[in-house]
Structures are given as C-alpha cells and as structure tokens.
Design the sequence.
C-alpha cells in the first residue's frame, strides 16, 4: 500500500455508536479513508463477495453469531487483514486469536486514535 492511496476499511458492528466513533477517529487520523459500515455481519459477507478493502474492523459479539465464526467466514472469501474489537479482552480471546493469522490486532473498545494510527501505519508499510 503506497502512501498516497485511499484506504478502504470495512467496519462490522451491531452498535451504531461504535461506527460513529470509528469514523470520527479514522478521519482524524487520515481524512482520505473510505469507511464502509455494516450493522449485519451477513451484509458485510455479501459485500465482500464482490468487493475488496484494505482492512476489516469487526466486533467480536453479535446476536446469534460468534465473532470467531464470522472471522472464519471472512477467511473463506478474503485474505483482508482484520482488527478484532471487543468490550473485554480475556485470556481466551488472546489465545483464540492465534487460530486466525488474518486477525492482526485485538483491541478493547472503544478503539483509540493511537490504535487507529498504528493500524494505518501497518497498512501503509
């Protein structure tokens, strides 16, 4: 990813407030970022069937669906790096992340501006 290109980032979270926070902080870090928010995991999976992005930010908990199951489904259709967000990081999540090399980071919500800058630097390196 070169310095001048626009990053396309997918945000998958059933909490609309998280989408607002992510968008605000992303745009503070880089005003050229294109953010594609999805409230429903299936809608994001459908979108990924025909589109691509540079990064996926996703929640770990959804009604009726494990974030780990979603991560597995994403891996079947795309190799886009994923940042997993959760309200509480436990030793279980830290261990489970090892099963998903596509998941490059695990952060506690809400994601900080510094964490976003770290992600963007990673994508551009």
Sequence:
């Amino acid at each position: 990813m070169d310095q001048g290109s626009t990053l396309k980032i997918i945000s998958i979270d059933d909490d609309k407030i998280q989408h607002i926070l992510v968008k605000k902080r992303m745009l503070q870090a880089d005003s050229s970022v294109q953010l594609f928010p999805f409230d429903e995991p299936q809608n994001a999976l459908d979108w990924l069937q025909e589109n691509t992005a540079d990064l996926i930010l996703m929640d770990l908990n959804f009604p009726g669906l494990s974030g780990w199951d979603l991560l597995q489904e994403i891996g079947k259709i795309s190799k886009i790096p994923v940042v997993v967000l959760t309200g509480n990081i436990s030793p279980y999540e830290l261990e489970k992340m090892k099963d998903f090399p596509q998941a490059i980071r695990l952060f506690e919500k809400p994601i900080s501006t510094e964490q976003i800058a770290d992600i963007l630097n990673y994508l551009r390196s």
The longest helix spans residues 16-29. DSSP finds five helices and seven strands in the chain. The two ends are 7 Å apart (CA to CA).
